[in-house]
Prior knowledge:
By secondary structure, the protein is α/β, with parallel strands linked by helices. The protein has 14 helices and 10 strands.
Amino acid sequence: MTTHETLTADRLRALPLPMPQEGSKDERGSALVLGGSVSVPGAALLSGVAALRAGAGKLKIATVASAAVGLALAVPEAMVIGLPETPQGGVDGARASARLREAAEACDALLVGPGLMGSGPTTALAVELMKALPSAAFTLDAAAVSGLAAHADQVRRHKGRVVITPHAGEMAQLLDRSRDAVEADPLDAALAATDLLQAVVVMKGAQTWVVDPHGARWLYEGGGVGLATSGSGDVLAGIVVGLLARGVEPLTAALWGVFLHGEAGKRLAASVGPVGFLARELSGEVPGLLRETGG
């Protein structure tokens, strides 16, 4: 019989988050979100705002040049970096590489993936940044997850400072399984991924599993059907990277991220309705949840 912990507010209180002492934004760390494309620039916005709502002190957003001005106006709290684009409207990794490394040098945590185009180019960018920033923590989401199997050695060399946040389709591509197989046994898929990558795995679904290479198995029983909406996963990934920027250990950041995201969904279901609330509304619930849960 599988043993696991159930993720609740009471259990999280045994894993407290660091509280700032000096009132300095530097003390709460710097997060960089690499995301967005011409067709979905808002993914980077959703993740970036979530990182700030989770308590990150400083935020950079790196995205396609054509979306940079709009994002800078939409998120005035962030430094926005416009990157060269491909003809298809994605980030041109080859031409963006040097600019990205420069932007990321002083960052404590990076999120790669939301809204980026193509698993191959996105994974290559993530791996390049991991090589260049061996001490930084990473959250890998969406297109950054699907092609990781070919780079498993590099992820493993990052020694547990990586959190991946796939849904069933992305996990299926990572493990070369069918989506049906992943959905039939999401815990087994999560365990296979953490064994392959030696990373913390957040296996998203109606119920979410969080596992790590040291044998931790946590189950969050779900924030409600309303969370199955466009952009919801971008918010979750942003919360996690915001917590990583604050210096939270990867497993703890993943657990808090899943809980805060799910409980935000529950609150909006109660105040707005079980379906129909927007992903952009989730982040606004996070500071209050942190206060109430002791984070």
